[in-house]
Write a structure and sequence with these properties.
With 169 residues, the protein is mainly α. 66% of the residues lie in helices and 0% in strands.
């Protein structure tokens, strides 16, 4: 038995964005081999992107037909912010973005340490010293495994790298 739920704030916008992404993927898949043959490299990506676009369009129509349900007299934007983009999610997304940028400048070790400690705090652990210790232990284990078992050279960072001892590079 399928039960239909009312449309949530931002749901239709999200569906339209998915269709736009699938159309972009369809266009890029077409440029891989332009449907030269069924065995061409772009055939499978083209088929998958077309399936995504078609099912996405069907979902847009289905979602647009639903009645928008707003709670507590909130506006669409207020409900979207409250339900879809809570502060913790936004802050964690910013933290991930800063982590990616940080690896370039301060390197894998320092960026990862800060990311682990701050993300534990952001996600609710208020034991700062324990967070710092666990971050250090996890990072040490990751560093040892990647450097010894896999022989991977982790990014040292443009600002910190020149000052790191050779062991940590």
């Amino acid at each position: 038995m399928h039960t239909s739920h009312p449309r949530l704030a931002g749901e239709l916008t999200f569906m339209v964005l998915l269709v736009l992404v699938s159309l972009f993927l369809l266009w890029t898949a077409y440029h891989i081999s332009s449907l030269e043959s069924l065995a061409a490299p772009g055939t499978f990506p083209l088929f998958c992107a077309a399936a995504m676009a078609i099912t996405g369009l069907l979902n847009v129509v289905k979602t647009a037909r639903k009645k928008l349900h707003l709670e507590n007299g909130e506006s669409t934007v207020q409900q979207f912010v409250r339900k879809i983009t809570p502060l913790q999610l936004v802050l964690f997304s910013v933290l991930i973005f800063l982590y990616m940028l940080g690896m370039e400048f301060i390197g894998f070790l320092l960026a990862s340490y800060l990311f682990l400690a701050l993300s534990m705090y952001l996600l609710g652990s208020r034991r700062v010293l324990l967070n710092l210790l666990i971050s250090a232990l996890v990072l040490a284990a990751i560093f040892i495994v990647f450097r010894t078992a896999f022989s991977v050279i982790l990014p040292a960072g443009s600002l910190v790298g020149p000052y790191l001892p050779e062991l940590l590079k």
